[in-house]
Amino acid sequence: MDRISIYDELSRVERDVVAGERQLAEQERLVLELKRQGENTANAEAELERLRECQRHRDRDRQRLLSLLQP
After folding, report:
1. Which burial class, exposed, middle or buried, applies to 36 when counting CB atoms under 10 A from its CB (0-12, 13-18, 19+)?
2. Burial (Cβ within 10 Å: 0-12, 13-18, ≥19) of residue 4
3. Could you state, in order of their start, the residue ranges of all structural domains in the chain?
4. What is the spatial distance between Cα 3 and Cα 9, in angstroms, rounded to a whole number?
5. At how many degrees (to 10) do helices 3-36 and 42-69 cross?
6. d(CA 23, CA 25)
7. CB neighbours of 10 closer than 8 A, spacing ≥ 6?
8. Distances (CA, A) of 42 to 2, 27, 38, 49
9. pLDDT single digits (tens) 23-63
């Protein structure tokens, strides 16, 4: 993979990381709201864990790409 391709992919991953952080924050707010209302949070918490796992994957991708750019 050449440096330009790595930078292009890193740019995409960075955008995905930012979007993922937004999704996580929204889902965390939903879980808190459901708890506040005394609602069942099982599905919302399962979705939150899925989103966290996706974010961990994006973070690993970002670190992998950054390591490829190191001299």
Report:
1. exposed
2. exposed
3. 3-69
4. 10
5. 160
6. 5
7. 62, 65, 66, 69
8. 44, 12, 12, 11
9. 999 999 999 999 999 999 999 999 999 999 999 999 999 99
Place of tokens 């966290």: 52
Give the number of C-alpha atoms closer than 13 A to the C-alpha of residue 68, restricted to the C-beta side.
16
Instruction: Dig out the tokens for 67 from the structure.
Output: 């390591």
Position 69, amino acid: L
What is the residue whose two structure tokens read 């001299």? 71
Tokens of 43: 């599905």
The pTM assigned to this predicted structure is: 0.89
**Four-residue CA torsion sign, 3, 8, 9, 10:** positive
